[in-house]
Known about the structure:
Elements: E1 37-47, E2 52-61, E3 66-74, E4 86-94, E5 104-106, E6 113-118, E7 122-129, E8 134-142, E9 147-148, E10 160-174, E11 177-193, H1 219-224, E12 232-238, E13 244-249, E14 259-269, E15 272-275, E16 282-287, E17 294-302, E18 308-319, E19 327-334, E20 337-346, H2 349-359
Domain DUF7065: 23-194
Region (Disordered): 192-218
Pfam families: DUF7064, DUF7065
Amino acid sequence: MVRADAACGDASVVTAETPFLPDDDAFHRSPDDNPFWAETTWWSFNVPERKLGGWLHAQFNTNRGTVTWRVYVWDPRGADPEQLRYFRMETDVPMRDLAPDLRDIAIPGGGFSVRMLRPLHDYRIEYSDPAAGFAVHLDFEGVHPPRRFTPGEPPFMEHTHLDQLGHVTGELVLSGERIPIDCYSVRDRSWAPRGAPKRTGDKPAAAPTNRVRHPGGPRWREIERERGRGRIQYIFGHAGADVGFLGFVRVADGDAGGWSPLNHGWLLADGHFERLDKSASVMKNYRDPRTGWSDHMELRLTDLTGRTLDVEGHSVSHICERGGGSTALMRWELGGRIGWGEDQDIWHPKHFARMLEALQAVR
Length: 363
């Protein structure tokens, strides 16, 4: 039900410099009949004046012929799904069209639509829920070609993944109110198996003899740095088409002082993108002791050409979808400019609960 594309060749020859091709806007053929083969499309936007963030996301399990999609908007009024300004999620919706075109698709079950206007560059995304007085209409104009990061490194062990910064304009209708959108934000896509349960006969992987690579520092930071817990932290912020950053934080490789390296991403300065130097780019996070969510961050970024950027950010609103970490709308100070973006702070709920208990300890 999916088409082949030129990016599905021998993964061993793919590097961070391998460009994406126009066919990468379409679905990709699964190499087998794995029911957990998944393909995603994600679009984000923000309205800084309202401290408001928004997502449209879909995961297609194309070998099963289903799609799970969600649309939501959050602001400081509340972070749980039932408190959000808007939240809708539909799971395992049958795909009536068994050979859909991701370049021009209306996601079944009342989902959002995506229409490619220019390959790998410009798109129109639309969604409407008249009963809730809600709609979003976005035009995404790419600032640069999609970026590929090094295959075979966490968190992209099997995934092909792209990120792209865009100028996002349009309109949000929220409880009947029309709100203009004019921001810089990110889209991403990935395709690979995901979500498969462990097979009954599989032997569990041996736990690290010491889950903390660099012991020391506050106990809550030690718990956060434990390896093998599935922690992912994805952060980005931009003040326009000429300055900003994006990166994946390797929390488990952080030091006792709280500084964690970034192993993928970009630095954007003077309108020029360059990959981050993963040996010299670090982030330190300060958490809200009430919620455990990210509250304040410092970044020291260096790219492969030696350019540097010091960044400081504060969270202004959150969504907590699964009871662990949160996604935060972030306000960033970027070399004298104010930018906006996100912190996607992903935890296993039990791991997060242990960290929060240590962060709130009184003895």
